[in-house]
Amino acid sequence: MSGDTVDEAHAGPDGSSAGPGGSASPEERRARRAAAWNGARRRLSEGLPAGTIAGRLARLAEEGAAAYDLERGPDLYGDGIVADLEERTAALLGAEAAAFFPTGTMAQQVALRCWAGRTGSPVVALHPLSHPERHERGALTHVSGVRTVHPTGAPRPPTAEEVRELDEPFGTLLLELPLRDAGFVLPTWDELTETVAAARERDAVVHFDGARLWECTAHFGRTLPEIADLADSVYVSFYKSLGGLSGAALAGPEDFVEEARAWRHRYGGQLFQQWPAALAALVGLERELPRLPEYAAHAKAVAGALREGLAEAGVPWFRVHPEEPHTHQFQVWLPYDAEVLTEAAVRQAEEDGTVLFRAWREPGPPGLAMTEVTVAAPGLAWGPGDVREALSAFLARVRPD
Questions:
Q1: Which of 42, 161, 216, 310 has the greatest count of CB atoms below 10 A from its CB?
Q2: Where are the stretches annotated Disordered (predicted)?
Q3: Rounded distance between C-alpha atoms, residue 83 and residue 60, angstroms
Q4: Whole-angstrom Cα distance, residue 396 to residue 392?
Q5: What was the pLDDT predicted at 2?
């Protein structure tokens, strides 16, 4: 989806930072946004999950038939289709083994807890913008007993020098690839290998927060196994970028994954049946994974057309970040209130049937708003002219004068 859950997950608690305003309740505003964006004819990526449960089950069965033998029985406590998904994931990443988890939050807590026990250090070095630090309510500390330190506060991945010079000892270095809240940014391949080497020099293990690792291959010019091989363990998501229902996997050495399975059980992740999530993940690996490099390449064209269109429109200040996206996702910043921009996006969807942007928020000073743009299969049909035309119509609703 465009924004990749920023529509709801990053709105304020009352929805005010991403709602169309007025006297409508937060629930009514969210319903209006979802109806507008899902009902639009043209969009850069899929919208929020929509339709009836019956319709979604029918679609899962239809798409799943091409990815798995649906005549087989459902899973029980992680066997069957879940075990098959784990094997497929391990093979894709070139890892010895992989374990399925109901959430990425649980998977990473378990990974870092395991490494804390193995290294003898409960300290994890990670970026302050990383997901465990910003979006998990302090779970690493409160639930897993892990303490965190930050190699840098700059809105980019940490460098090898910063890892070497960190003034506290640590047992694990966590690298989020890409660093979503900094703009889905990635280091270069050489920078990544140097940073990993710097951690090894300090006798630390390396864990990749790879929720979106699937779409990094084009930027690095390396295969998934080559990327994953740099780390001691890797977490990947099955719904971000792959369009699954939910779920994640933790991959690494066989003995590490076996220990992770034990902690998964203790954390409540040994579910009775998980076949819908596992089947949706296999569909995503079959359908979406091969197309991610194409999405990333087209995102560069979309970002370029946005930069050109904003400059031509005379917007007093704007930023497309990164200027050339590292993946198929990037940020757009504009000098207007988030509520005004979100209302313009909703109206454009309702009136024109076009979704260029979705929800906006104000992570910095008031009056300076940001949205996340995702380019996926529907966006491949958008040429530069289509992007500029949609942008012009959007700005006309922001600046009616």
A1: 216
A2: 1-33
A3: 19
A4: 6
A5: 41
CA 86 – CA 148 distance, rounded (Å): 29
Smallest CA-to-CA distance from 197 within 232, 160, 222, 224 is with 160
Amino acid occupying residue 266: R
Taking only the tens place, the pLDDT of each residue in 262-277 is 999 999 999 999 999 9
Q: What is the pLDDT of residues 118-145, one digit of tens each?
A: 999 999 999 999 999 999 999 999 999 9
- Token pair 């959007």 in the structure block, residue: 394
CB atoms within 10 A of CB 164: 15
**Residue 379 CA from chain centroid, whole number:** 18
d(CA 107, CA 234): 10
This prediction has a pTM of 0.92
Calpha distance 176→314 (Å, rounded):
35
Q: What region, left, alpha or beta, does residue 78 occupy, with left being phi > 0 and alpha being psi -120 to 50 degrees?
A: left
> What type of residue is 133?
E
Compute and round to an integer the Cα radius of gyration of the chain: 21
